[in-house]
Amino acid sequence: MAFFKKFGEKLRTIFKSRKIDEEFFDELEDTLIEGDLGSRLTDEIVETLRKEAKENKLTEATELQEKMKQILSRYVKPYEFSFDDKLAVWMILGVNGVGKTTTIAKMAKYFTKRGQRVLLAAGDTFRAAAVDQLEIHANRLSMRIVKQSTGSDPGAVIFDAITSAIAQKDTLVLADTAGRMHNKENLMKELKKMDKIIKAKNIAPDHYKKFLVIDATTGQNGLSQAMLFDEAVKLDGVILTKYDSAAKGGALVQIGKLLSLPIVFVCTGEGYDDIKPFDKEEYLDSLMGLSD
């Protein structure tokens, strides 16, 4: 599947069989901004390409296409998974509506198929539907889940989940979290409490991760969410949902450039198997219009 196909086709058209002139750079600049690369990053890319064309006396736009891919490649990186016999605890964050709970279920199936013993923790106790939804997924996938009643302390859910995981020799806890973010202070307070609980359970720091789920179609809004959550809780990576041809895709480059966050997974549909680790080359080729 060619991700970001429409945007890639636009870029392919701009670079294809034309001379390098001011019209080319103006059109490229407009397209990059439309594709959610942002004005500052767009200026940087366009100026670098101008310099490249001038210094190397390039005349054909196609000669700059691979150079632009190299520029973007500096900012985008996949997440590297690493497991051992110690328990890992992953907090999955994100605003309501991005597909966070379903993504957790997809991740659970993905890692179970690869030998991990996964436990789900229903830490979004503010929203009754979230607890019920995760339980439905757990039942469908025949997975263990730790939950409490709506309105319970999410820290208590995490405590019970880790206790249970240790007792049952699980290797990965995937914890849902509240999708509301009224302000940084509330989020920090909640995460600090969870941090304290996790540390008290002797979870190694490099086995405790915080991943943010964002909707790939939201563009700049996704970037804003990443910046807010990273400032509040220091993220370890980003997971993308709705990763298809409707997404422009440039916000990913900005997330990588501004926050140095790797991309963990991409989700391409509603099925449990519609998830895969982020492929940097595939993403860049699709974004640049270099793939069919």
Draw up the topology in text.
Elements: H1 5-15, H2 22-34, H3 39-55, H4 62-73, E1 88-93, H5 100-113, E2 118-121, H6 128-141, E3 144-146, H7 154-167, E4 172-176, H8 184-200, E5 208-215, H9 220-233, E6 237-241, H10 250-259, E7 263-267, E8 275-277, H11 280-288
Descriptive overview:
The protein contains 11 helices and 8 strands. The chain is an alpha/beta fold. Helix 1 crosses helix 11, helix 3 crosses helix 4 and helix 5 packs parallel to helix 6. It is elongated.
Share of helix, binned: 40-55%
SSE topology string? HHHHEHEHEHEHEHEHEEH
Shape label: elongated
Number of strands: 8
Name the poorly predicted regions: none
Based on CA atoms alone, the radius of gyration comes out at 21 Å
Largest sheet: 8 strands, mixed
Q: Average pLDDT across residues?
A: 88
Query: Which structural class matches the secondary elements?
Result: alpha/beta
Strand order of the largest sheet: 3-2-4-1-5-6-7-8
User: Helix count?
Assistant: 11
Beta percentage is 5-15%
What is the CA-CA span between the terminal residues?
9 Å
In short:
With 292 residues, the protein is of the alpha/beta class. It has helices at residues 5-15, 22-34, 39-55, 62-73, 100-113, 128-141, 154-167, 184-200, 220-233, 250-259, 280-288; strands at residues 88-93, 118-121, 144-146, 172-176, 208-215, 237-241, 263-267, 275-277. It has an 8-stranded mixed beta sheet with strand order 3-2-4-1-5-6-7-8, with helices on both faces.
